[in-house]
Specification:
305 residues; Rossmann fold; Tumour Suppressor Smad4; eleven-stranded antiparallel β-sheet; four-stranded parallel β-sheet; 28% helix
């Protein structure tokens, strides 16, 4: 079951998928295609396919589309019993999850992974947070979650244009930085509290990349059963801009910056007395307080061999 978000990548997914469907029958397997028309519809389609144990459920789009499909593998915070495998054809804006998993960016290469790849059990993150209407909500993520500056960037990306592709995150990231003010946050990692009087953001990473190619968590692995947690304290605007190159290459944690700390944990609570947005795989579903919990090996994903 291919679940296609035609709006991904500012319409790139819809345009390219039309061409893919012309040659896809020659790939040698039977398939169905469902195109989404509204937010969260991919979750509903995926959940039906997962309950039917369709052999493979494929997210066609960006990291946000993948997040919706991932959530279709869960119900009430727990994995749905299934034999379905998850796969991805990356046709979105940021392309961050595919970088860690080394999924080819071209559609033919991605389809070849689906037909001849290796099935691996990946960890997922389960998040309990405050939704936009003030209620408590639960949602899953497979790539990276964060609270603070990243949540504000994602809000602006998703309510603006994505016509610039992956560079969109960097452009809006810089414009957001100009007006951003660091927030007080309390982070509790596996029961140990960390008080941040002012924090730019707290990153809870299952994989390595976010923000359109920033290698924020270079040692993160979606198969190790723990989150990489990066605490970014009272970083200023100029030092953030100067550090973009190191963060893109993944060298930022080698600089012994006292405002940046890498920790590991399975249960991460983040609170703040101020309004702080969260980001899950490039989606912006709500605010702190949030509890991030690892679910080891919760989902089977088809990866390159």
């Amino acid at each position: 079951m291919f679940i296609v978000n035609p709006a991904s990548g500012a319409g790139k997914a819809g345009r390219e998928w039309s061409a893919v469907e012309q040659w896809l029958p020659s790939a040698g397997f039977q398939f169905d295609v469902a195109r989404t028309t509204r937010p969260l519809e991919a979750t509903e389609i995926a959940q039906r396919a997962v309950r039917e144990s369709r052999p493979v459920v494929v997210a066609v789009g960006g990291d946000g589309t993948l997040n919706e499909v991932v959530n279709g593998f869960f119900h009430n915070g727990a994995p749905i019993p299934t034999t379905s495998k998850l796969a991805m054809v990356p046709l979105g804006t940021g392309g961050d999850f595919r970088r860690t998993m080394r999924i080819p960016p071209d559609t033919r290469g991605a389809i070849e992974v689906i037909t001849g790849g290796l099935v691996r059990r990946l960890d997922a993150g389960c998040v309990t947070y405050q939704s936009h209407d003030g209620s408590t909500a639960v949602r899953h993520f497979i790539n990276i979650a964060d609270a603070g500056y990243g949540g504000e960037v994602v809000r602006r990306v998703n309510t603006g244009t994505k016509a610039f592709g992956g560079v969109t995150f960097k452009i809006i990231g810089l414009t957001t930085l100009l007006s951003w003010k660091n927030k007080p946050m309390t982070v509790v990692i596996d029961g140990v509290p960390h008080e941040l009087k002012k924090a730019q953001q707290v990153v809870v990473a299952n994989c390595q990349y976010f923000g359109g190619g920033m290698r924020i968590a270079p040692s993160a692995s979606p198969t190790d059963g723990v989150f990489d947690v990066i605490l970014i304290g009272d970083a200023g605007k100029l030092e953030t801009i100067r550090g973009i190159g190191d963060m893109t290459s993944g060298k930022h944690l080698d600089q012994h910056n006292p405002k940046m700390e890498l920790m590991y944990g399975k249960r991460v609570s983040v609170t703040s007395p101020e309004l702080v947005r969260i980001d899950l795989d490039g989606e912006q579903p709500g605010f702190l307080p949030a509890l991030f919990e690892i679910q080891p090996g919760a989902i089977e994903f088809i990866t390159p061999r």
